Amino acid sequence: MKITEQRTFSQADFDAFADLSGDNNPIHVDHEFAAESRFGRTVSHGVLLCSVIRGMIERHLPGSRQLAHTVMYPAPTFADEAMLFEIDIERASDSEHQCAFQVKRVADETVTCEGQCRVQS
């Protein structure tokens, strides 16, 4: 089963996630600092992206528990850019599913987050 969702995060979303998580790394919340970085502007917390992925899985496999997770961030996710979240869910056994996921920019299809997880239902 393939599930997709499009999301556009704002700087306010990055700031709210920083407040909630306590991760106030300036690359996520400080425009002046981020402007001097190799990215040139603030970038999303990786865990914010993974939280959206986990929520999507939960909506399709209610009550599932995540058993394992691997993730890479090959490019940054910026505020105010439409992002496409894609997850392929395959049954691995009677009670487990393997989920491969990818987050990419809608505008140019650059992958900003990819990985896989195993969940038990």
CATH architecture: Roll
Order of neighbouring strands in the sheet with most strands: 1-3-4-5-2
Q: What is the number of domains?
A: 1
Helix content: 25-40%
CATH superfamily: Hotdog Thioesterase
CATH top level?
Answer: Alpha Beta
How many strands, what sense, and barrel or not for the largest sheet?
A: 5 strands, antiparallel
What is the CATH topology assignment?
A: Thiol Ester Dehydrase, Chain A
Shape: elongated
Indicate the mean pLDDT.
97
* Low-confidence blocks of residues: none
The rounded distance between the terminal residues' Cα atoms is 15 Å
Helix segment tally: 4
Which features characterize this protein?
121 residues, alpha+beta, Thiol Ester Dehydrase, Chain A, five-stranded antiparallel sheet
Describe this structure in words.
The chain is of the alpha+beta class. The chain contains four helices and five strands; from the N terminus they run E-H-H-H-H-E-E-E-E. The chain has helices at 11-21, 26-29, 31-35, 46-60; strands at 2-8, 65-72, 82-91, 96-105, 111-120. The chain has a five-stranded antiparallel sheet, with helices on one face. Strand 4 (96-105) and strand 5 (111-120) form a beta hairpin. The longest helix is centred in the middle third of the chain and has 15 residues, at 46-60. It is elongated and about 50 Å long. The mean pLDDT is 97.
